[in-house]
């Protein structure tokens, strides 16, 4: 890579599930990577008394091993970006990043719905984090490209028979004089949890700072990430990525893979008719690279990409994993408030046009069960599997109905 292409990239939340493999991927490409993380996710592991299925190493060990394996140094700063504004601003001024990638938010929907305390933490943390990053970019006077990890959940999951566009919806409105004019508006927000609501609010921060201060922003509306490792995290076991399987942080497909590895019935919420968007972690890191390499120009509106590669119904995923592994399926109470059945189709041409070659679920699922979930199955605490966070007090938790000794 020539010096011109090499960028200084600050990764906020670079110790997390998406942030760690992204940091290594970008460092491996020759970029100068700086991680900022307050390790709050590791503290939440302590709060929930549940650790990653994979044995993740302390951040100091991770960075030392990366230096030994790759020869590349990554600097680390422990800063709470939601609270420590002056520290964040000083760091931006000192490091002078070309790009900031923002992963640093509380990202679990069930965790955000556990109690008033968790709702308030999620709102305080996520909204202040995003506003502080934007404010620090303005205060620094630097022309930083901000890449944010958003969610497909901002759209809601009902699409009225059309494909969800990438961020902006074409509309036609009648004027007072009877003419009809065409416009593009931000797709109407329809969040399904307090966490998802913070992501819809983030969009408005981006819209405002882009309009008012001309900040160049890419917002990636990402689907559910599955898988564990990427080419870089596989270079040494001590670089291994996090694998969440508990009822709060475990996402649906990784949970099914881990449940299959230990013979625990696959916990389908309700009928499993919920259709969601998915992407493999290897494609996540590649998409972020592509977003960095294709920045918006000064004066462009917020650039929005749908960062997903396929859509599936939850029960179809359960049936696929059951067929491949022989695990049974348990249809449990849905602890969430969400449509029992929906169709979800979304455009994702912008990444395909820029060279993404997706990993398909059909290829990768079984490998993931055998290479990761089975290998670390002995670390699982099965009491942490049921989804115990309910959206309302009246709802019931997502526990399999039978008691068959698991
Ligand atoms: P994660 O919880 O594993 O990582 C987030 C990291 O940010 C953690 O290391 C945490 O310690 C850090 N962090 C949180 N608040 C912070 C603060 N105030 N200051 C400094 N650091 C802070 O989550 P993830 O799965 O890596 O998700 C990263 C981003 O991607 C999130 O914003 C999430 O909304 C988005 N996303 C994730 C998924 C998914 O399936 N994992 C899907 C779509 C979008
Ligand atoms: N589900 C089950 N069984 C389980 C776990 C989940 O049926 O054991 C169902 C849920 O009820 C839901 C669907 O699977 O209908 C997805 O749940 P999830 O926990 O995998 O994903 P979600 O809560 O939507 O959140 C995850 C990430 C979040 C990200 C979002 C992308 O935690 O950070 O924003 O995926 S998206 O779903 O596109 O909004």
TrEMBL record:
Q: Which SUPFAM superfamilies match?
A: NAD(P)-binding Rossmann-fold domains
Query: Which residues does UniProt assign to the signal peptide?
Result: none
Q: Where are the transmembrane segments?
A: none
Listed Pfam families: Epimerase
- Classify the source by domain of life: Bacteria
Q: Where is this region: Disordered?
A: 393-406
Q: Where in this chain does the record put each NAD-dependent epimerase/dehydratase domain?
A: 9-298
Q: Do you know which PANTHER family this protein is assigned to?
A: DTDP-D-GLUCOSE 4,6-DEHYDRATASE-RELATED
Q: Which family does it belong to?
A: Belongs to the NAD(P)-dependent epimerase/dehydratase family.
Name of this chain's protein: NAD-dependent epimerase/dehydratase family protein
